Every structure is written in C-alpha cells, then in structure tokens.
Amino acid sequence: MSPSRLPPRWLRRVLQPLLLAGLAAATTLLPVLVVAAAAASHWLPGRLRALRLLCFALVWLALECAALVAALVLWVATGLGSRLDAPRSVHAHYTVLRWVLAVAVGVGRRLFRLELRTEGVSWTPLDDGLPGSTNAMVVLSRHAGPGDSVLLVHTLMDRDHLRRPRIVLKDLLRLDPLLDVYLGRLPAVFVDSDPSAGAGAAVADGIGRLAAGMGEEDALLVFPEGGNFTPARRRRIIDRLRGKGLEQRARAAESLQHLLPPRPAGVVAALQAAPHADVVLVAHTGLEHLVSLRDLWRELPMDKVLHLRWWFVPAAEVPREREAATAWLNEWWGRIDGWLAERAVPAGGRP
Question: How far apart (Å, rounded) are the C-alpha atoms in residues 37 and 329?
Fold first, then answer.
C-alpha cells in the first residue's frame, strides 16, 4: 500500500476520537461483553479463549486512548506542536511509549502465558561490571510473526537497556493511531507497503538519515528481510531472482530454510552513516507460524516459550564498505538460519 492509498493525515486525526467513544461504549457494555465472551469460550477450543482476547483488546484500547490523550497534552505543552522536536519533548514521547509497551507486553504475557527466554551476551549499558555497549546501536532482526517488533522495541526500551529506538516499519501501520502519532513525531522511516512502488533507494536514504543522527542512547531497528517469512514468499523471491538471471543470489536464498534473503541496501546505508555504531543481531522463535488473523485465533491461548537470541558485534569489527558489508550480512543470516534449525523450527515455522 502506497502512502497515497492511506487515508490522509487530517482524516486519520479526525477519526481518533472514535477510539474514546469505543472505549466508553465497551466500558458501558462490559457486563454483556464478558457474558458473551464466557459463553463463546465454552464452545471454543482452549481455556477461556474469547475472554482472554476480550481482556487484551480492552487493555490495548485503553492504552491507545491514554497515549493519545498524553500526545494531545504534549502537543499543547510544546506550543501547539512548535517544539515537538525539542529534547524534553522527545524524552516525554519515549517515556509514554515505554509505559504503553511495558503494560501491553506484561498483560499479554500473563493472559496468553508466554515465557520469554533470552540468550546471548548482555549488552546493557547500565552496569559497568557487565559486557555491553554505551555506543549508538544498529539492531538487525529477523522478521517473523506479528508480535516480534513489539517485543523487540519493548526489550530495547526496558529498564535494563533504556534505548531510544528508531524504527523502520511498513506505512500500513500508520492505520494504528498510536503508532501514527508517536512515530510521526519520533525518528522513524515508513516503508511503502506496495512492492511495485520501487522506492528502495528512497528507503535506504531514509535509513541512512536515521542512522547518521544517532547518539549513544539510540538504537536503529531494521528488519533486513523486509517482511515476515513464509514458504510461499521465500519461493517467490527465489523464482524472481532466477527470472532476473541472478543465479548466485538465488542459490544463496535457497540455502536459507527459515529466513528470507536479507536486503542489503538499507543495512549498508545504516552502517555507513553510523560508523560509530555497534551492531546487535537478533533471532527469535515461537511466533513465526502466526502469520494471519486466522493463525492468531487458532493458536490462542498460546502457552508458549519464546526464545530470543542476541549477538553483539562491536563497531570496530563491522565492515562498512558495500561489498564487504553485504557479504558480512549474508554470512550472519546463514548463522542465524543455523540457530533456528538447531531449535527444530520447520521451514514453514510450524512446530
């Protein structure tokens, strides 16, 4: 979806008060909704499936409304938006986002009984006795499942890391009012969701600009695959590479069983624009088979263990020249694919 296919900005802002009306209606009808969800849960597989979904939906709706009210207060406090880019304003917006994510992730983990196990060397900057980094950081993550970006951003912002994430994400996510407002005010790049738009160079330039301005508290989050892994998407990419006569790249893509081949342009732009930045590579399992709303419905309650693996690479060890950086990224993607294979995640992501 290209930006022109999204509702215009003024219309998205006008529709935001509907969330408050929705929250008021849900609160008024709460007894009816609970009874209906309890009745539906009796006939659905899993334990209290509909009630869990209702509870999380109400929590998320309340968080959206609270964050939008806070955004309005901050807009007024910054001179009707004239000083939104001031350091105090940026700090306040990150603080609200940190709170929203902490509540949402905490409630989600309890409701759906999710356990997060983190592997790898700590890179927290808060304890001088631990290995880690106080530099700016480029975070390169696989992309699989609807919740991975939420978990990653929450981890970057939690009390152990306190990073200020700069995010590259699909423009379709601007349909979420909270993301539209907050990431519209904070450093972010919205990628055209229409693969036919041909905006790759513009996206890489935007990522480079994000990386160039990073300070020691900042972390740029990039998903080099450009989309969630599915076997069908992997096959289409391989066929497209072969159709263009890029046999070597097609064979490299075929060697990856659990990942899509990384797109190097944005990564190289980030690495070159921020030569001072360390790099963290991230892999995770547990959410990759949740691709559609149907998958989400079928798998709830989840009762899952999510594995998160970090690899820390100091800035001095990261190649910055285009060909060397591309080869380095492909090598790491093969290593991450091997880590996933060790956890017996099949190619389709289904356990």
Answer: 47
Asked whether residue 192 carries a pLDDT value surpassing 50, the answer given is yes
Query: Which of 44-48, 228-232, 242-246 has the highest average model confidence (pLDDT)?
Result: 242-246
Q: What is the pTM of this model?
A: 0.89
Residue spans per domain, the chain: 3-342
| Identity of the amino acid at 110 | R
Task: Please say whether the beta carbons of 187 and 209 come within 8 A.
Answer: no
Closest CA to 161 of 106, 118, 204, 207: 118
Q: Indicate the pairing of strand 278-285 with strand 304-313.
A: antiparallel
Ramachandran region of residue 105, left (φ > 0), alpha (ψ -120 to 50) or beta?
Answer: alpha
Candidate from 58-62, 65-69, 102-106, 200-204 with smallest mean pLDDT: 200-204
- The whole-number pLDDT of residue 308 equals 86
Cα 200 to Cα 194, 203, 290, distances in angstroms: 11, 5, 27
Inter-residue contact 307 to 119 (CB < 8 Å): yes
Using CA atoms, how far residue 208 sits from 164, 194, 213, 268, in Å, is: 17, 21, 9, 8
- Here the contacts of 60-66 (C-beta below 8 Å, separation 24 or greater) are 60/104, 61/19, 61/22, 61/23, 61/26, 62/23, 63/100, 63/103, 63/104, 63/178, 64/19, 64/176, 64/177, 64/178, 65/19, 65/20, 65/23, 66/100
What tokens does 179 get? 């993301």
Q: What distance in Å separates the CA atoms of residue 41 and residue 43, rounded to the nearest whole number?
A: 5
- Stretch 141-147: mean pLDDT, rounded? 78
